[in-house]
Structure formats: C-alpha cells, structure tokens
Design goal:
three-stranded antiparallel β-sheet; alpha+beta
Length: about 200
C-alpha cells in the first residue's frame, strides 16, 4: 500500500475533536503544508468524506472562528480565536524533543494552575515541536494585549525575584509551597532541589 493509501485508511478511522467545526477555515497540502485554503465543512462527517476522497498529506484548521470561513480573509467575519502556543526547536533530535516535551508539560501546568484553563489540546507539529491550544471560552475572547500579558507571565519577562520575599518587622518571609503563582512554584522547585529533609531540619515541618 502506498502513502496515499495509508492516509486514506487513517482518515476512515480517524476521529476529530474540533470545536465548532463549521466556523473553522481549513487548509490542505500534498507536497507542502498549505497548497489550498479557505475550505469549510459543516460537520465532521463532511470533513471526513472530503479527506477520504482527496487524501491530502497535510491538513490544518484555523485557531480562529469565522462567520463565513470559506470566504477571503477580509470577508470571513472574525468571531473569536483559541489561544495558541507554538513550541519549536531548530534541530529536532530525540533528546531535544524530550526536553521540549517537558517544557510543554510545564506550560500546560501553568495554564491550568495559574490561569484556570480546562480545555487544552496538545498536538505534535509533525516535525519540530508541539502546539498547545487553549479552547476555554474566556481565553477565546481575550484581546491581543491580554494574550501578550499571559505570554509574558509564562516566559517570565520582566520577572523580579525580590517580589517573592516580603519583610515583616525584622524578618524576611519567603514564599511557601502552597502560595499561588510564581511564589508557590519557586518554593516547590526549591524544595525539590534541596530536598524536604533540608527544610525539616532548618525550618521545621
């Protein structure tokens, strides 16, 4: 069986978990990732039948939701968009991808614990890394400035470690493992590196 035959068999069995599929723009490719775009489908079944018939080697859909996804960009009618994170590396060796996977796990943990995200989709990009999509409605409605602020928080841009410590009288109070956000993360990572026995010995249980 050739490559197209293998893909056709895959498409017959595949299940797609695409929210509001009728509002997404799709793109396909045979030799390159995007050779044809502005495709739209009303249902998952319609999409599946198209894929079985055309057998593209590449397929993707927009993170954005549109009123008329099959029209040209200016006429689509933007509604909202998932929040997307693209984690890529230049040289995708097995070891590098394993390290990148750990970063993806940390990212998902921060999105869940620090921002309350629940609907998160992780996809392997097919070559150089991972794509992480946040599909909670509250994230879909965020403006560009708000999305930028979340990215800066996650990447630690402008991070000042001194805010983790507070002075109370003559004492300097550091972060606790149960604290929220960076304070708790700093304390838990420090405990992991030094060991719980160190803290029990010097600071009590």
């Amino acid at each position: 069986m050739n490559l197209r035959g293998l893909f056709a068999e895959y498409y017959k069995k595949a299940r797609f978990h695409i929210i509001n599929i009728f509002q997404r723009e799709f793109a396909i490719g045979f030799n390159e990732k995007i050779e044809k775009r502005h495709l739209a489908f009303l249902t998952e079944e319609e999409l599946k039948n198209f894929l079985i018939k055309e057998v593209p080697l590449y397929i993707s859909h927009s993170t954005a939701y549109y009123k008329s996804p099959s029209l040209e960009m200016k006429e689509k009618g933007f509604i909202k968009a998932d929040m997307a994170f693209d984690l890529d590396i230049k040289n995708p060796t097995k070891e590098a991808l394993e390290m990148l996977k750990e970063e993806a796990i940390i990212l998902v943990d921060m999105l869940k614990e620090d921002f309350g995200a629940k609907d998160i989709l992780i996809a392997f990009s097919g070559h150089r890394g991972f794509h992480v999509y946040v599909r909670d409605e509250i994230f879909q409605m965020l403006k560009s400035e708000e999305r930028k602020a979340i990215v800066e928080y996650i990447t630690g841009k402008g991070f000042d470690y001194t805010f983790l410590f507070q002075q109370e009288g003559n004492k300097i109070i550091g972060p606790k493992p149960t604290d929220y956000g960076y304070r708790g993360r700093f304390a838990r990572k420090t405990m992991e590196m030094l060991g719980n026995n160190y803290f029990s010995k010097h600071f009590g249980k």
